[in-house]
Amino acid sequence: MKQKKSSIGDHLASLSVQYGCYPAELFQALVEARESSKGVGVCQTLTIEYRGTVDDEAIFLVKQNGIAQVQFRVGEETLKQKNLGFDGWMESDRIRKQIARQNPSAPVSSHISDLRHGMKKVNVDEAKVLDTPQPKQVHTQFGNTIMMANVYVEDETGKINLCLWDEQIKTVKAGDIVQIKNASVATFKGEKQIRLGKMGTITVLRKEHARSNGQNAKISRKAEKPVLA
Length: 229
Fold this sequence. Notes:
Blueprint: H1 8-19, H2 23-35, E1 40-43, E2 46-54, E3 57-64, E4 67-75, H3 76-80, H4 86-89, H5 93-102, E5 108-109, E6 122-129, E7 136-139, E8 145-155, E9 158-165, H6 167-170, E10 177-188, E11 191-195, E12 201-206, H7 208-223
Parallel strand pairs: 5-6, 9-11
Antiparallel strand pairs: 1-2, 2-3, 3-4, 6-8, 6-10, 7-8, 8-9, 10-11, 10-12
Helix pairs in contact: 1-5
């Protein structure tokens, strides 16, 4: 079956959803394969092989675990572009439906490294808040102003941006161990981020900064020498 040439963005977005990688990662692997002397690029579990150029279109073969999955063409001019709309590729109705089919209806616990654009009802059982930057005022389309902060959280597999709004911002501090439930994963300016939305929640499991301060206080008291009369 021949691939339609109408939208290479749609095609790469579909492959990204199917194989669990972000379009920017997949596109970079194509560029790497095209420019590499070995003609090979890597994206997650995929190996991309450059097979040559015909009619100004580069031919790529995608393999997973050594088994050929799909072969398609990308225009040479497209490969040279620097500011492609990767985020927009994931927002078409067809891609949304594909994501919905691949995501189970019940919330799923995931490691941060496994989170992909479009995932819904995501739980991160335990993650550490790395920082709590100064909130910024954001003007909404409804004419009001709300506070927003992008904090980073990490687990043993990686880190990700977590978008917090208004009262959510006050609930966490750097060093806290938190649990995130019923969230979604999106992208903003090419970076993945967790969004709580209306249904998502964040719970502080342990206030590491407070416990750490308590431990430091105990150490200081032990270090004090008794005063002799």
